[in-house]
Amino acid sequence: MAHFNPWHDVALGDNAPQTVTGIIEIPKGSKGKYELDKESGLLKLDRVLFSAVHYPAAYGFIPQTYCDDNDPLDILVICSVDVVPMCLVEAKVIGVMQMIDGNEEDDKIIAVAANDISVNHYNDIADLPPHTLLEMQRFFEDYKALEHKQVVVERFMGREDAYGIIEKSIKLYDETFRQNSSASPETQTAGIEL
């Protein structure tokens, strides 16, 4: 019997790539690194961060996307309230942080909660206070450095670049998980080995 998996069974959003569904794994301020267990669809504690830093925004992934690191596309969602893990957030895409993690590209989409009036007026990454981007950059560089891993935040780019990255990850998802299948989306993902 097939089981529900958030990565495959939650819609990515009717207005993608401008607005996407973000599935939150880690709330802002957390030192716990939670991530989706791809096989069961449940959330697991990957590790507790070995540092004084904590997540600068709600962190998760965009369903029905796939990247070269064999994971769904990551997303940071800025919101004025703490968003609980496994919550679905309608996220308005405003930019992307391009990172190299262990010699692999590891893009992080940056978005604001579309239904949060205190942040949804931001339309592009350039609208954010400069310290917000610096905090994001320092978080990823610092926590990885304390784990003796090298991460380089290459650059921040605006929403149009982010849209292209999202579209590419949707295409790769479709090619990887939906090719050679004329079945309905529900049955396409039922037998996927992750």
Automatic annotation (TrEMBL):
Catalytic activity as recorded in UniProt: diphosphate + H2O = 2 phosphate + H(+)
Gene3D superfamilies assigned to the protein according to its UniProt record, in alphabetical order: Inorganic pyrophosphatase
Binding residues annotated for Mg(2+) 1, in chain numbering: D69, D74, D106
Keywords: Cytoplasm, Hydrolase, Magnesium, Metal-binding
Record-linked InterPro entries: Pyrophosphatase, Pyrophosphatase_sf
GO cellular component: cytoplasm
Cofactors demanded by this protein: Mg(2+)
Enzyme class: hydrolase
Residues that coordinate or bind Mg(2+) 2: D74
Keyword Cytoplasm attached: yes
Binding sites annotated in the UniProt record for substrate: K33, R47, Y59, Y143
GO molecular function: inorganic diphosphate phosphatase activity; magnesium ion binding
EC number(s) recorded for this UniProt protein: 3.6.1.1
Compartment(s) where it occurs, according to its Swiss-Prot or TrEMBL record: Cytoplasm
Signal peptide: none
One of the GO biological process terms: phosphate-containing compound metabolic process
PANTHER family the UniProt entry points to: INORGANIC PYROPHOSPHATASE
Similarity comment text for this entry: Belongs to the PPase family.
Function: Catalyzes the hydrolysis of inorganic pyrophosphate (PPi) forming two phosphate ions.
Quaternary structure and partners: Homohexamer.
Protein name as catalogued: Inorganic pyrophosphatase
Species the sequence originates in: Hymenobacter jejuensis
